[in-house]
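Sample entry as discussed:
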Amino acid sequence: APPGSTVEVRLDPARPAPDAVSSVQGSVGSLTCSDPTGWSEPVPGEGWQLDLALPREPGWALACVGSPGQATPVLVRAAGP
């Protein structure tokens, strides 16, 4: 996706949704998924999505989905034209 854009991160609709989902996002290297700091309050998993803001320069953004104790990292690359 282009630098500075926003992308949607969603749960796979083909899999059963968890009861609740939390998330945290940031740049790669500034975020550790197991750190409980900055995580959102849990929300119902059904239909869950997160708008992830990409860096303004080419690089990587990280979203951690689930919970600090059982997080799934999602990497998204902001690529130049």
Observations:
- The two ends are 9 Å apart (CA to CA).
- The first strand starts at residue 6 and ends at 10.
- Strands lie at 6-10, 20-27, 43-44, 49-53, 59-66, 72-78.
- DSSP finds no helices and six strands in the chain.
